Every structure is written in structure tokens, then in C-alpha cells.
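Technical annex B. To support the medicinal chemistry partners, we prepared a structural model of the target in complex with zinc ion, based solely on the information shown next.
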Amino acid sequence: MEAFSPIPPEWVDSATHALKFCCPRCGEPPSVATAVWINRRAPVYTHNHKRKWQEFYQCECETVWWAWSSDRPPNPWQTNDSPDMPPPNLDPLTGLEDSWGSFEP
Ligand SMILES: [Zn+2]
């Protein structure tokens, strides 16, 4: 899983824009996605000077969709009952800026 690879995976070509931050076909959230790719090479500046970028998800139903990072709800999986086990393939999304590389005891 290379969510931050500079090279887009082939499956993003078929992505459709999801206006809500979930699969437009089955409504599943990105936490169930089987693959993710984040287009951080091409951020867009919003009117209030925040950056946003496209996040691509391949749903478990095989639908590929994307949405703006600014539309992502904060840490949706923190509300479930297994906070010790975030989806390993999506864990980097919990802290795009500050939670990687350093592990604090
Ligand atoms: Zn789906």
C-alpha cells in the first residue's frame, strides 16, 4: 500500500467524484476501502488558503471514488469499539502532518 506514492495507481483512472465522503455506489466509508491513493502532488488552495487534495479510494465493492481531503470527516473510525486496531492500510490518514515517523512512548 503506497498511499503517498508520487505515481498514481492505474485504478484511479476510473474514479468517480463522490460528493459525500463515502462510496457513491454502496455508501461505505473510506475505512473499508481496499486501496487508497492521495494526490498530494497537486494540492489546491481553497478560498481561505487551506490546502486540499484529491483522495482516491477503492471500495470493497470495487467502485473507485475520490473526494477532496477537506471533505473528509475527522477520524471516522475512532468512534468504533476497537480503537487499538485502526485499519493498518489507512492509518497514515489519521495524521497527515504530524503522526508519522515518530513514536512517542
Ligand atoms: Zn462501495
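Notes passed to the chemistry partners:
The pocket of zinc ion is lined by residues 23, 25-26, 28, 59, 61, 63 (CB under 6 Å).
Residues 1-74 form one domain.
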